[in-house]
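Hi C.,

You asked whether I'd gotten around to modeling the 470-residue construct. I have! Everything is below, sequence then structure, no commentary in between.
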Amino acid sequence: MRRRTVLTTAVLAVVAAPGTARAADPGPSVTARGTTLLDARAIYFVSYDGLVNNNSFQKNGLLTYRGYQYAAWYTAARNAVVARRALGATTWSAVTLAHTLKSDDSHNVISMGVSKTDGRLHLTMDSHSDGFFYVRSVAGLLDNPATTAWSSSVFGAVQTSLDGLALTSQFTYPQFIATPEGRLQLSYRAGISGNGRNALAEYDGSSWRALGEWSGSTGTYTSAHGSSTARNMYLHGIDYDVNGRLHAFFTWREQSNAVMCSGGGITNHDTGYVYSTDRGRTWRNDAGTVVGTTGTADTVSVTDSGLVVDPLDPDHSLMNQESQATDSAGRPHAIISYVPGRFGQCTTAYVADRVANGRAFHVRKNAAGGWQKTEIPVPLSSSQRTRLVLDRYDNAYAVLPYGRIAAASKGSGYTDWRLLYDGSGLNAFGEVVVDEWRVRADNVLSFLYQEKSTGTTPSPLRVADFALPA
């Protein structure tokens, strides 16, 4: 039997214990600074309920480094493009890369990463359970952007390996992570939905090497309805905190539909959590027990104890790959979403049920070391994902579908969630891509979004900026 950690749940009518924020710390607020245009005619097609230019699980489709912001997307002509601007500038300078999007699949996102040891920008593109495309800039490009030329000549050739390192022929969900000492890691899934493994590669400033797989797909999971013997772990993120600990929230997706009450649902179940204190070489459950070693046969498994921090069966349309963050004390936070039991115990139409009754929840570790969960009292009205941001005072912001922003204060113990911005005027399609780095750089919440369109008619791609409490 898997050991489950029980969360303390707070709906907004319930007052939780107060937080530890100082009385002088301000609560959450957002002040709109306007939007800038990336592309008046970005490629538009709906696939898996999302868009290829703004799937919120991208890490990173938008990032800030040394006073400049970078964005990547596909144009109406299917060209991969990367652009930059000085922070505060209203115009972007774009460079077209030597790659065109190969298929109308919203999973085939562009992700960017920064190797601080040599000042390079790295990009992976265009993969969904198949081969990937990789390109990197010249060394030093990001270190002195104001005096460094910005043109296609600063990017190398597009490759189908990491400078000769072959990873897998079934590659999906690239996420770049900068280590505390400035190395660059690449998280990805090997395999397919319902039968895949998470893996890591690492760049030390001169070359890439594979660290190996760290989550497993085998073992038996049994629900009230049936069993499954294969699955994959979907990450809500993978992030280093201020103390150098690597955190990962996740949910499992089972391969067999036998675990569901209805074939119209989705086999995602449980919110789990693991962490690493050695740069992803070994993984521990919440109690500190090692449950997996990267690159070995002992990977994190659905049968390992102590992984689940919020138990949920596969009958509630739980979203995969939502979001996470760590606060100033290194404590992990996540956003999850599903159809709560008060709307029924069996979702029969995944998208329709989430649109009608889906709700997002804030899950976090408190100062006492326990887990707490609070419902965000804003209906999703969407099947899509929400992004989590923490400001310098550890106030929490949930960037909901359509660019709406809800927030809660640390001082309240995160019980005072309310809507701060309703997305009026954005005409955003659904999910947004948040610049995680910019919040730390200049206290601005910045996100990329694409305007709604129909069919395959291209639409504007923009970046919206909001000042957070000073």
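If it helps when you're writing up: The helical segments are 350-357, 436-442.

Thanks,
B.
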